[in-house]
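Risk register update: the risk of archive-format incompatibility is retired. Evidence:
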Amino acid sequence: MNSETSMESALASVHAEVEAAGRSANLLGRELKRARSAAASGNVRELRRALDAGADLGRELERAVTDTRASYDLDETELLASGAYAKELLVTASDAGVAMFEEDDRLLCYPSIVRVLPGELALEIDRRRVRALRPSVVVALLERAQNAGPRFKAAPFLASLLAGYDYVLARQGKAANTVVRLVDVYAVLTLLPGQSGKYTKTEFTRDLYLLDQSGVTEVGSTGRRLRLAASTGTKQAGVLTTVARSGQQQRYWGIAFDEVSP
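Archived output:
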């Protein structure tokens, strides 16, 4: 194996070899139990037979484990750092019928956002570290999350959008109800140092989609209602893209908050 070997095939091979070694270990354990029982009762004939069989099985088991260890020479860090692993995840997801897209340095798989962490030999899935890297296992995990649906609170997010929107209006000197770019609102919401790293634009766009799907548009008792503007904005700078549950790319550009008529 080497860095050009897929992680799925490498792990599948080791899995099969370790399973075979495990069967040998079970046989060894059985002979040791017989030896222990024979020693306890004084059945020396059975004791010698069990010890001889155990010694043979022990040597076989040692060779099997040594050979398996030698055969597993996958360069995991290189695989993750080169982008080959991300491509393998995309192919595995496609084969499983799970929609996944690459966006900047993230993988989007509704409602999850995945980031590969080569230095940690791990993934970050929705802010959680995941050490299980086998592609088929990761895709199954993402599919379960997809079937379970998002844990998203629309009202607080909508309220933060309104606060950011009003700030942008004031800073840009625009009239009430004017459409502003979502990237400008995002910039306001992440003004504090380090906030853009803690809450990425990819996550912001995913949350916009979840809000869009929720159908929640009115901000509490403020008398303001969200209006998304994307039909012409998708041709302009500042378009934000995420993946919809259907697997299609969803684009957002601008928003406005209108007064709700009594």
